[in-house]
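hey can u check if this looks right to u? its 619 residues, i copy pasted from the old doc so theres a chance i mangled smth
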Amino acid sequence: MREEFEKMAAAGKILGSHLETLVNLVECGYCQHKSWGFGQIKSVDPVFAKFTIDFVGKPGHTMALNFAAETLKPIPKDHLLARKASDPAGLQQLAAKDHLGLVKLVLSSHGGKATVDQIQKALVPDVIKDDWKKWWEAAKRELKKSGHFQVPTKKTEPIVYQEQEVSMQSRLLEDFRNARGLKAKIVIVQELVANAADLTDKAAAAADIIPALNAEIPSHQRTQPGVALDAIFMREDMRALSGHPAQAGELSSGDIWAQNPMLSDIMEGVTATRHRRALESFKQAREADWAEVLLKAINSVPTRTCKEFSGLLMHEGKLPDLKLTLRRLITQHSASSELLLWFAKDRNTQFADLLGPEVFRAMLTAMERDQFNEKRSSKLRDYILSDQDLVVELIGSADIDLVKDMTRSLQFSPVFDDLEKRLLLGWIVKTFPVIQSLITGTQTKQDNSLVVSWESLEKARIEYQELVDKKIPANSQEIALARSYGDLSENHEFKAAKEMQTVLMRRKGELEIALDRARGTDFSNVSTDMVGIGTIVHLTDMEANKPETLTILGAWDDDADKGIISYLTPVAQALMNKKVGESVEYDVHGVRHHHRIDSIEAYNKNVAAPAEVAASAAQ
């Protein structure tokens, strides 16, 4: 192709200065344009001095050779972009079998180095279609073991490929010596400990690291005790790997705790994975009052630390004290959003008796309080919006008046925007349909009320209290216990408990609507001028010429054996407001009935119903 370009240059079709660039473009076969992106050179037209190039989304594009030489960057055939175009299946196979080979290809395509974000952008989704995080974790472990890659501790710094192989121990020790500050050194020691199996000389590594840590720990003892304690832990881990002897005068974890530092400050300085270790050392140093200190500090530490505190307290038999502290913080609405977030995430059977509407109210208070803090956090708010089960479990056992009060608090809360409020209120209405009118601003009309006997009303109230006080809390415990088994997708106990929750909540909602509409009565002072609620109606079946007696009572009263029917039944509705001597026709199960009203009397609950009297007489 060079001869063709030389002829075109001699003929004045292209500039001589473009010759090498054009040859390079043809030999590579691929190119990059700053606006149109990656392209493949399909053909060269020497007559009209043009390329035909397939750009992504712009196939068959023609471009003058001189313009191409000035605007296109040649892409070699072994470049990642070229490999994506020519052999995507081969790249995917490489991703599966050779992590290091693929990363090396990406780095070489980026000039020898690239950040993690650049690597991800280059490979996803064209090469790695599923679970980038899992793939990268595996690749990163291999990169750290390989002597050809420099893997920085910060994600924003580039990974670098180097031809000369350097052992992991040499690289990490060099990083340790160059690290600025004790925190940075701790990170590198942690990596050394994690890759102990790949170290060539553990004793030599410990001989370098332990004295260096001992030299820096005292300077952090008072100003950054958490960092000093973290360094002591890592020093002991290096000692355990190598058998390096203790040095005279070196500080121990007991020396750190002897200063009586703030526990929250210590936990903030210690790496999260060593929080439990820090607490164990604190417990040893403060045998007399460690639990009391943890209970006082639990409301001022991050969510993860709350989990560690509670775990240690429960392990040491301090669950009653922990529950007492939680109950006080929740009822006083002084619990922090971090503590409440842990409580919401880790709710289980051990705390089932604390789960209730007061927790939700405490959450609203905590989130509103956070709005005035310099370090605002939306973690609790985001979690509430993401976990519908939480809201249902917290308010499930509440009585309707408390739920109405909660609903008003939510409506006026500045924490959630209008869309989020509608979402939460929708969940609450699903559990408590009776508050729909409170949200929409409409009130239940008086003609929707239900007239019920005091006896049936009391029976419904007993059923409601049984649901609220026993069945729903018991179901919440079952859900929490089933959740602790893990893997909810295959957890049949969890699914069964959730299905029962749906049944219980539906019945609870039905009862709340019914009780809200119910108007109790003893049916006294009932007029007998016409058929009404609380009357006994004596009838004659005109077809069979037989007498019948019906007692019309409240909405929930029904006893066929005693001739008692609800005023809401079709028969009662047909008889209502009719007088003695009138005829009435009505259908029952498709059968037409014709009755005459012979007499009307008032119902008296202290007197046996007519059907009962008739039964007694027959005996």
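The longest helix spans residues 454-484.
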